[in-house]
């Protein structure tokens, strides 16, 4: 739509916004598209309100909408706050000789100054002579109160969203640039709409230039900033890991030095202790103890047999035989039980 208007020499919706900002220094752009403008003023009662001018999507082929933000009882204001004046009702009729064929012959071609005239008519209807006292009816310089002059003669204002709206070169450039500090608009549609027609045509014809503009816009998006933060964090983590790796290598070097210096002494100590353990096991190991038990059991059994032979020969009295034989057999059975227990433990 904007491109069609440019090709036919018609002003863009942004041009109407620029003209309002120039004519009413205290005005503010409400949205990034520049289609809604608030102009503050004071009611006769002393209460401060604002006149909101909304430019529809097909403006200037559609009428602008004027509303008073604070409810007001006035013959020209309906219950919804919408303001009805002759300039709005007759919008487009004053230049009916300019027709757009693709719009079905709807009158178009109303200039930005005509919109300013409609707004001034609205203030005159609302305030009467008070409108002139508030400077709402006369010509105002674009750099009046509420504006910010730049070095190149452009004018800047702050919208309600905190963005700075720069009127680059006034009506000649017809460009409104939004900025929030160092970053541009996050809406690509707003970025493209703020460009002049020549720049847009260049982007359509030059792919490299389009890539540059797209890259410049992408750098200022929240996703790009988040990605850059992640990259910085990864770099920091990588540097920390490299520093830790160097520390680990140094620790390994110290361990190697300690091992090389103490290895021989530790090995000699280990071999001495191992030899001592082998000697103890050789004397008091399980196999050795089992052999001793078997030997003792055999001795006890042999002693009992010898006592029996002596008794049978008549060389040992019966009283002594009974006492000694019982003791010998008791010793044998105790030793034999120990032997059996040792053999059982070795098997399991």
UniProtKB/TrEMBL annotation:
GO cellular component term, pick one: ESCRT I complex
Keyword tags: Endosome, Protein transport, Transport
InterPro entries given in the database record: Mod_r
Segments forming domain VPS37 C-terminal: 267-348
Organism the protein comes from: Volvox carteri f. nagariensis
Domain of life of the native organism: Eukaryota
Main subcellular location: other
Any one GO BP annotation for this protein: protein targeting to vacuole
Name the UniProt record assigns to this protein: VPS37 C-terminal domain-containing protein
Subcellular localization, as worded in the UniProt entry: Endosome
Family stated for the protein in its record: Belongs to the VPS37 family.
